[in-house]
Design a protein that fits this description.
alpha/beta, Rossmann fold, nine-stranded mixed sheet, six-stranded parallel sheet, 19 helices, globular, binds adenosine-5'-diphosphate, binds alpha-D-glucopyranose, EC 2.4.1.21
Amino acid sequence: MTTMKRVLSVASECVPLVKTGGLADVVGALPGALAGQGWEMRVLLPAYRALRPLCADWPEVFALDDLFGGRGAVKAGEVAGIAVLLLDAPHLYDREGGPYNSGGADWPDNPQRFAALSWVAAEIARRGLSDGWRPQVLHAHDWQAGFAPAYLAFGGPRDVGSVITIHNIAFQGWAEAAMLSTLRLPAHEFHAASLEYYGGLSSLKAGMVTADRITTVSPRYAEELMRPEFGMGLQGIVAARAAEVQGILNGVDEGVWSPEAEAVPYTATRIKGKAANRAALCAEFGLEEVPGPLAIVVSRLTDQKGMDLLPEVLPDFIAAGGGLAVLGSGDPVLEAAMLDLAARFPGRVGVRIGYDEGLSHRMFAGADAVLVPSRFEPCGLTQMYGLRYGTLPVVAAVGGLADTVITANPAALAAGTATGITFHPTDATAFAGALRQLGTLYADPKLWAQIRRRAMAQPVGWAASAAAYARLYDSILRP
Ligand code: ADP
Ligand code: GLC
């Protein structure tokens, strides 16, 4: 029997325990995906209030008496096959609200809350857990874990490799410069090539300058981050470290996201069931069975996602016979704009404000197309659900969207390789053009069936990416 190599994943979200976005899906999927690659991954997360009862009886495997103002204890357990380490530090995490905020306002002590998570990660990497487990690689996700590679690097010689994955550079984990000593960071590292960011500190930048490797969640996003339009002031660092930057596409859990597991199961070759799911979806949203394509949106409603373009492009799409079902939540202005569309186009546009995993499945199973008009998209998961369900993705050609969808241009149509529609730039003109093309393709049943078959055959699982992560970890193993 070969022994498994060990990697500690550090993050603020993980399915099925806590989720606000795709980060949670990825953090939750990686351990299973890596197990087949010879890597045993444990996931360190804060024990938010809702998670405390779960770990109350779990054994304590690590503790610090003074973790940024109180005791922090790490409890070890297993959830849905994932080896989970919950950091129980009530003074930081035992509060009502979301992981980052309450009622829309960020917790003022977020810098300490996530520095604490990162500190514990680095300490575990140095000293190991009381059950004898010590990682060989530390894998930090996003700004919340950005200080973990930094604490590890600043603590002297080390035998543990480190990686930071950028899921979204729009959040940099900013803190005032005066927090330097509170956050246990060395004063001599406060300069532009290290911790300093717009006069303050950025935990994401800290991770990016100290980790052995930087990954992004798609190859295209890695390139984009070297440009000022996408790099949020960190483009210089990404460019300077280009040789150590790698884009590795996210996958989706093909067991969870499978048209064969939906209310009326279907496959690429036995597609008939999709029509029944479509009818059910129309009924659920109070929509007519529209003659044109039935599109869906399942998304956080934020500036990133480009949903403010919908009111502009929708009238023509509806006039041409299309319909739309929206499931999302977020920015109150965008929520109101979506509800307004439903009021303007009764029977043609249906909107649910909220978060509903089950409903999202029924939407992918029933719809003809999924719309993802993002301004930037590090990877994106819903376009991949769309591929798998034969719910053709209509996406802005940015980041992971560009890397996963083959647009139905004449060359791809001639070669039979198209899997959806991409448009560029992210504006109403290009989006409207893509929706017109969607209508045209939908009106040609043979062509539509061909593209749908191709989309459903596209591999969107974790196999290739898990192997890429394993190779990356292997490349930074230290003696
Ligand atoms: P991001 O992480 O930027 O929000 P992703 O596409 O990577 O974008 O991941 C979003 C994840 O959250 C997907 O699994 C998507 O299905 C899910 N999701 C987003 N909004 C909702 C919602 N309102 N209801 C159900 N699932 C949602
Ligand atoms: C971020 C990005 C999204 C990506 C997800 C998981 O939330 O916005 O594009 O798919 O992280 O990596």
